[in-house]
Amino acid sequence: MSQVVSPCVALLLLAITLGGAALWGEEGDVPPAPAVEMRKPTFFTQHQEADGHWSVSGFAAHCTSTPGCGAGAVSDAADVAVTGEILLAYEHSGYDHVAPSRHRSMLKKAVVWLVARQKADGSFADTLEADCWASAGLGEAYSLSGDAELKAPVTRALASLLERRVRDPEGHPCGWGDQDSGWIDSRLTSWAILALRAGLAGGVVDAVELRRSLTWINAANSQVKAPGNFPIRYNIRSHQGDVGGGAPFAALALAASGMAKDPIHDALLDAATSPDPNLVTDLSGLFATTEALFFAKAHDPMRWGDAHVHWKALKDRLEREQIHNDSCADGTWDPATWPETRGRLESTTLALLVLDTCTDQRSPVISVSP
């Protein structure tokens, strides 16, 4: 039996068929999640270098308004790190360098630039932090897109990270930091775990490697009187550590490794979420806490079902502080509010990463189960 299509429906179907590309962008963009799309400022497109990367110190040369957006520190490694972070921010919203979208060209150039920067040993820069972010950005690009050309670079990058773990006196690999002195850095460890998770989703890393890298957390935790004092740095050989600052990052490392039901994790995440989000000035710490809650809620929804309370406080603050004006800084966040960031590029990127999770706009493509 034939079906009769009403004239209105026929016109709608024709409009979608012929006008879809014009409606959503020249590259055939699919309708984006409105909240996510509103927060992705044109700032990144306007300030990207011709070769595909973002320059922390030189991006202001692309400013179209006076005064400009300001500049960050001069560092080649910072450019690598921020380019990886920006990739990750778009990937967490479901965008990649292959699927049709208005961001595809920009993301493709960034991916090509990072791959071209990779050295023979799998690293990208002269700092471990930059390598973590570059590996995370490329790793999720591979996991999201299935781009076969990225498998080899991602495999080399993650193998390099695993080789650079600090080892305990018995020679067992622990977290990341300074291999020579034995100091483990909680922040670097959490960034490395995020990169390895991306490789896990892409099938190039064994989940066992994530958990093997976190045995030091038990030792560090036993040295402190309260989870809120968990050290930002801990020496696996002398068993000494700095006081405080490490709880958000250790919690993220555990949660992202599938250890969200570990009692130590619960105590660390409770400590990380206890400060008022409106008073915290470490944006990377807020990002770590938000990510830890994302993974913890997925693994144990009964225990962390009220994560939305913390997320709402963060969302309200970040939306209130986002710049809205006619300058080229529109849609960004002022780095003066976040003194530990590397300028406007990083403050804006980390704020977007936090917001996407706080508003449940995080891409569901990457599995939360290691």
Report on this model:
The protein has 370 residues and is mostly helical. Helices cover 50% and strands 4% of the residues. The chain has helices at 7-24, 34-39, 43-46, 76-91, 104-117, 128-145, 151-163, 186-201, 207-212, 216-222, 247-256, 263-273, 283-299, 307-321, 344-358, and strands at 165-167, 173-178, 183-185, 233-235. The chain has a four-stranded antiparallel β-sheet with strand order 1-2-3-4. Helix 6 runs parallel beside helix 8, helix 7 (151-163) runs antiparallel to helix 8 (186-201) and helix 11 (247-256) packs across helix 12. The longest helix is centred in the first third of the chain and has 18 residues, at 7-24. The relative contact order is 0.12.
